[in-house]
């Protein structure tokens, strides 16, 4: 029987903040939480006005933010939970953004902590949304297609500028002094557990199969990371770096080590408790939402990640355009499949920040509109396309605007565009035999925007379930902690006790879906025309068909 007085600590390192969550392991009750903002840059992101593709973070923000968040969560738990004692925390789990690699010296210290590199963005963490390495990603894709085509089969056929090797190769070219000073590069998802366990030295930490498999071309079938000979064809120094990295990666149900005394004293919790191997926020968000075979989990925030799993005891086809198929990356014993959109909430925030209005005003106006009434259609590529085209040089598009177009019409159209993009991803899964039997949503937009959830239901013609927890990434980390802490034998067993969905999903409206089906056909035309090199055809009909649909909806046809 599970001790009702045992708790797990989940740490969620996001784009702008770090969240700590204390969860009762017997039933998933969230008893204490605290969010700490990153102090450097603009909302925690180091930017460069000369290069809009650059996005970095200072690694000290992870450590100071974690310290504040854990202390705050403990205070919150003490206030909310009678009899709570920090010594009842049995383990820690960690999720982070990714791919977010950072360079370390031979002692395991981030280069950004050196005075020489203190203000050098290239020596900091290269945030997941950094797209400065587009050329390097294309080069890696071409070289792998020529020499190691099997490398591409497990990452959707195209290597991305958001990923590990692209960013490191770009650093080598634009900041060789940083590359040469780095002994290794480490994912943030590995860095934080290594810091907590005092194993940050090269060769001492336990890397995450989630990070390595989805972003660094790791696969046990070819001996781990890409071989040094292949990487040397990109640059000899990249091959040398490979020889200093790891050969084995681990799942989240394995301990990265035990909590070091220095951090135990800072937090006020027991030293020696297990710290789980890290993973990416979206993957543990899927765990916290209760992912299982047949369930598509959509983590909807500034961007989206769409996650599915399938048992690893049967063959699974390679699926073009996915961000990887990795054994054990989400649930141990299952292949983890990741897809997603590079911008969703970021698109809505862009519109509010640069065009005007508030989310509340625009949402209210958009809710009064019927599907197709505006005569507008958009592509959701304002930050590139992550899936299925895997092309960060694609950009957004709005079609059909007139002198009568209003801001709320555009706002609704942008929501619809992200839902059309989500449907493309669902169709790609099912095209290759991975059936989407249920859609479960989590993240800020799923939590706060019922209009968006209803539009997603109407466009996809599927019920949109929403996680019971508003903190699914941190909850998923706590689930991993509960397993390594010995409260449960497996992640699915812990999920059964600690996670749940809200009882009432958003149900599709058949009449709305009928209109959206027409609009999706036009979205597909734009998607393929602008996104596929091999496309041939005409777009002559698109604007005129949008007007026809608009007039049909308005009753003026």
Task: Give the helices and strands, then pairings.
Elements: E1 7-13, E2 17-24, E3 30-37, E4 56-57, H1 59-80, E5 89-96, E6 101-104, E7 125-126, H2 134-147, H3 149-153, H4 164-174, H5 176-181, E8 184-187, H6 188-197, H7 209-215, H8 228-234, H9 236-244, E9 255-258, H10 261-267, E10 274-276, E11 279-280, H11 281-289, E12 295-300, E13 304-311, E14 325-327, E15 334-341, H12 345-354, H13 359-367, E16 377-379, E17 397-399, H14 407-431, E18 438-442, H15 444-448, H16 450-460, E19 464-466, H17 472-484, H18 491-498, H19 510-531, H20 540-554
Parallel strand pairs: 1-5, 5-11, 12-18, 18-19
Antiparallel strand pairs: 1-2, 2-3, 4-7, 6-8, 9-10, 12-13, 13-15, 14-15, 16-17
Helix pairs in contact: 2-4, 8-9, 11-17, 13-14, 14-16, 16-19, 17-18, 19-20
What is the CA-atom radius of gyration, in angstroms? 23 Å
Unreliable spans are: none
Structural class: alpha+beta
Largest sheet: 6 strands, mixed
The number of strands is: 19
Portion in helices: 40-55%
Helical segment tally? 20
Query: Cα distance, first to last residue?
Result: 66 Å
Mean pLDDT: 95
What is the overall silhouette?
globular
Across the major sheet, the strand order is 14-15-13-12-18-19
**Beta-strand content:** 15-25%
Structural commentary:
There is one protein chain. This protein has 557 residues and is α+β, with helices and mostly antiparallel strands. It has helices at residues 59-80, 134-147, 149-153, 164-174, 176-181, 188-197, 209-215, 228-234, 236-244, 261-267, 281-289, 345-354, 359-367, 407-431, 444-448, 450-460, 472-484, 491-498, 510-531, 540-554; strands at 7-13, 17-24, 30-37, 56-57, 89-96, 101-104, 125-126, 184-187, 255-258, 274-276, 279-280, 295-300, 304-311, 325-327, 334-341, 377-379, 397-399, 438-442, 464-466. The termini are far apart. The model has no long low-confidence stretch (mean pLDDT 95).
């Amino acid at each position: 029987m599970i001790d009702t007085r045992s708790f797990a600590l989940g740490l969620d390192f996001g784009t702008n903040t770090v969240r700590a969550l204390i969860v009762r392991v017997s039933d998933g009750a969230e008893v204490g939480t605290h969010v700490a903002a990153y102090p450097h840059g603009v909302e925690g992101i180091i930017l460069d006005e000369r290069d809009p593709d650059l996005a970095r973070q200072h690694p000290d923000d992870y450590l100071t933010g974690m310290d504040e968040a854990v202390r705050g969560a403990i205070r919150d738990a003490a206030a909310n939970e009678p009899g709570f004692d920090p010594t009842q925390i049995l383990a820690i789990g960690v999720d982070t953004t990714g791919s977010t690699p950072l360079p370390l010296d031979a002692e395991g210290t981030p280069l950004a902590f050196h005075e020489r590199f203190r203000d050098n963005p290239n020596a900091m963490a290269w945030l997941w949304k950094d797209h400065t390495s587009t050329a390097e990603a294309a080069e890696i894709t071409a070289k792998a297609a020529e020499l190691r085509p099997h490398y591409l089969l497990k990452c959707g056929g195209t290597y991305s500028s958001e990923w590990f090797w692209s960013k490191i190769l770009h650093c080598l070219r634009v900041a060789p002094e940083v590359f040469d000073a780095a002994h290794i590069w480490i994912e943030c998802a590995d860095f934080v557990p290594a810091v907590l366990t005092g194993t940050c030295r090269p060769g001492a930490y336990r890397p995450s199969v989630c990070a390595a498999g989805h972003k660094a071309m790791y696969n046990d079938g070819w001996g781990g990371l890409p071989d040094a000979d292949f990487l040397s064809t990109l640059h000899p120094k990249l091959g040398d770096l490979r020889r200093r990295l790891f050969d084995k990666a681990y799942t989240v149900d394995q301990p990265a080590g035990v909590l070091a005394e220095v951090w135990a004293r800072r937090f006020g919790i027991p030293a020696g408790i297990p710290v789980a191997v890290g993973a990416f926020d979206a993957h543990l968000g899927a765990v916290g939402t209760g992912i299982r075979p047949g369930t598509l989990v959509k983590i909807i925030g500034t961007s989206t990640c769409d996650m599915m799993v399938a048992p690893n005891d049967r063959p699974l086809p390679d699926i073009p355009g996915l961000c990887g198929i990795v054994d054990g990356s989400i649930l141990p014993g299952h292949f983890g499949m990741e897809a997603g959109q590079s911008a969703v909430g970021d698109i809505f925030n862009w519109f509010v920040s640069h065009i005007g209005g508030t989310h509340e005003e625009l949402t209210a106006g958009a809710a009064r509109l019927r599907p197709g009434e505006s005569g507008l259609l958009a592509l959701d590529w304002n930050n590139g396309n992550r899936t299925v085209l895997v092309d960060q040089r694609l950009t957004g598009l709005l079609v059909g605007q007139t002198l009568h177009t209003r801001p709320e019409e555009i706002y609704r159209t942008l929501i619809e565009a992200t839902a059309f993009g989500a449907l493309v991803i669902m169709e790609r899964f099912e095209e290759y035999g991975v059936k989407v039997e249920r859609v479960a949503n989590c993240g800020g937009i799923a939590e706060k925007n019922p209009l968006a959830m209803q539009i997603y239901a109407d466009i996809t013609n599927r019920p949109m379930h929403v996680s019971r927890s508003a903190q699914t990434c941190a909850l998923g980390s706590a689930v991993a902690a509960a397993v390594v802490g010995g409260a449960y034998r497996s992640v699915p067993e812990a999920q059964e006790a600690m996670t749940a969905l809200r009882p009432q999903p958003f149900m599709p409206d058949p009449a709305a879906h009928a209109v959206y089906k027409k609009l999706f056909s036009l979205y597909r035309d734009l998607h393929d025309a602008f996104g596929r090199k091999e496309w041939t055809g005409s777009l002559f009909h698109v604007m005129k068909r949008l007007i026809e649909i608009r007039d049909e909806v308005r009753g003026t046809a």
